[in-house]
Design goal:
Layout: E1 8-16, E2 19-35, E3 45-55, E4 63-70, E5 77-82, E6 88-91, H1 106-118, E7 122-126, E8 129-133
Antiparallel strand pairs: 1-2, 2-3, 3-4, 4-5, 5-6, 7-8
Length: 135
């Protein structure tokens, strides 16, 4: 993976029926984050934050997602989604867990797990594995 400020483009094959389709995942941001919050808002949050764009086959732009994965969580959660034109579909704060949790398909989050390992951000990360950050 390049330095942490360079977007990384990853081709992702997703199967719909018998035919796989090639999507493009652009990882714009991936970093460790801590946010102090009152207990009323769920308390302190520590984990990883990512910004990715998912482009459908043959398209150069797509929806942008802001994701978080907090310590001990087993999956990435969508905190915000913006359409290719910038229209906000929804937006919650980093690590908000007070609404219905949504995630991306595992084929789209596996590259985030790999990038977190490559950058030394996570000691344990993967499908169904509770996140443990690197020291």
């Amino acid at each position: 993976m390049n330095d942490e400020t360079t977007p990384v483009t990853v081709p992702v094959d997703i199967e719909f029926g018998d035919q796989p389709e090639r999507y493009t995942l652009i990882i714009t941001k991936l970093e460790r984050r801590f946010e102090s919050c009152s207990e009323l808002l769920g308390g302190d949050r520590t984990g990883l934050e990512a910004q990715v764009t998912v482009c459908q086959p043959g398209r150069d732009s797509g929806d942008t997602f802001f994701l978080s994965r907090l310590v001990d969580e087993e999956d990435w959660v969508i905190d915000a989604k913006f359409g290719a034109n910038g229209f906000p579909h929804f937006s919650h704060g980093f690590g908000s867990r007070v609404t219905k949790l949504r995630s991306l398909l595992p084929a789209l989050t596996d590259p985030l797990d790999a990038a977190a390992r490559e950058r030394g951000l996570a000691r344990v990360i993967g499908r169904g594995l509770p996140l443990t950050l690197s020291s």
